Amino acid sequence: MRPSALFTTTAAALFLTLAGCDNSGSTANTNPSPDALINVGEECDISQLKGVLDDYFIASKQLYPMWATALGDTELNGKFADGLSDQWLAQRHTLNTQSLAQIQQLNTSCYRQGEQLIVNEFTRSRQLALVGETFPTRFLPLNQFSNPYSSLIQFASGKAAQPFATVADFENFNARAEAFTRWVDLAINRMNEGIESNVTLPRVLALRSAEQIRRTLGLPQSESPLWGALVQAVADDTWTPQERQKITALFEQSVEQYIVPGLAKLADYLETDYLAKTRASDGYWGLPNGRLWYKHYVNVFVDDTRSVEEIHQLGLSEVSRIHQQMLEIGKLVGIEGDLQAVFHAMTSDDKFYFDNGQQLVDGYNELKQHINPLLDDYFANQPAQDYEIREVEAYRAANAAGASYMMGSRDGSRPGVFYVNTHNLRAQPKWGMVTLSLHEASPGHHFQIATQLTLPVLSEYQNYQSNGAFVEGWALYAEHLGLEMGLFNDPYDHFGKLSDELLRAMRLVVDTGLHDKGWSREQAISYMINSSPMAKSDIVAEVERYMAWPGQALSYKLGEQTILALRAKAEQQLGDRFDIREFHDVVLRNGSISLPTLRLQIELWLAQKQRGSE
């Protein structure tokens, strides 16, 4: 039996089982009703629940040691998990199946509401993970947007989570770099299997990955992130001569014998063997069972019961609504003409752009000082952890998003980082800065993630669980809060807010178009060029990101819509008793959870508030 045939049968069976035979492809909602949770016991032995979560968290770090390093766990700093071998895949499957069985065997009858929600959320995650295992993701081990070697390069720079304070730290990195070479061989073997099974990247994504690697290898040593940790270390005069000699030799071996040859081998393979055999389709629809695979990703990120077509139509409707508001702002600032005239006027004037990257970073630092004092009126509890604003590293800037956030360490020793892409300053207009800061920093990603890291939890696992629709939905909701904070009173800044909201609406159209409706890359790019004021370079990077990361682009708008709808419901039910700071605390109190669990969480809170007023 061909691998693709086995995959199709198994995936469909598991998928429909978890979907409750709903042809929308949504996972079954196992959450109980609010009434079922209100009267549960107040005292209960929850040690078994804690044990299941703790064991899963520990085992997950073993499977993903670079993630463990990012979390500040130093025990696995010398490991580079292959993520691709039959042995690794079997270990992951065993962990998911055993964890699901253990959580389902617990007697939860006496659990309190919060503990019931934890059980529901963990069960959903393991079920989705098991569905995900049935798709041949191993045949697509890299793309320009998501790959393990980018993390290794960041670690080598000395500006990420990998420590380089002792000789042992350099030995650990050396072991990790050596293990990377084995991953390269595994990745090549899996991609060859993918060619045989008709599961390959679109040509442009393979090309972008090769270009990204070549760009890194082509940097002079003085500019290369591959040498950053050593440059920083040798500048430290606390090393003894013997230690300095040792760490230099270790790092040179790591880079020259392991990382550089491994990257070169991968680039050679992509250019010489793989490119000619990549698939013609730009979306997942062109893969075996690709539409079902795509709907699985939609479930992972947003768990939405709507069909893909309904999501596509919602995007078209939202784009139309936002366009109308943009025309109104154009009239307000004296721009005559249609929407394209507004776009041209807002993107062609040099006054809207900085001359260099440092000016852009400085501008965001000024915004930070302006926004932070406003948060007191909207949040009773705020994270103590700070964030830094940095430029995206040159080696990855061409294919990176316009901005991103990297979480800090739980102990606060490493701050969060708001990355700004200065590769093309014409893609970073001044009028877009307020909304982008709200999204990536505070009260968006940094605020939410830093809060999650400090929540009192049953298990450390909860500090690091992440749901795409919650994380991105919250960040887009944070942009909405800017309206209430008075940050968009300037019409140009308001245009920037609408421009970013437009991007999230277009994502509903383009992501579903690419992966379900058979759109081409060029069709998606053309749609976004005609529908927005974005720079073409940004649009190309965005579309290629959607091609590489199906479903994730839906998280923003659908997550924000859910939070806004829950807030409207709370305002209606509570009237004068509604407190925005309390509402935000309730939304954030259990970390990054799925939208079904968030809805239940708010229902429980409202039920308790109503009972308290009786």
Automatic annotation (TrEMBL):
- Please give the name of this protein: DUF885 domain-containing protein
Q: Which organism is it from?
A: Neiella holothuriorum
The record's InterPro entries line, in alphabetical order, gives: DUF885 (IPR010281)
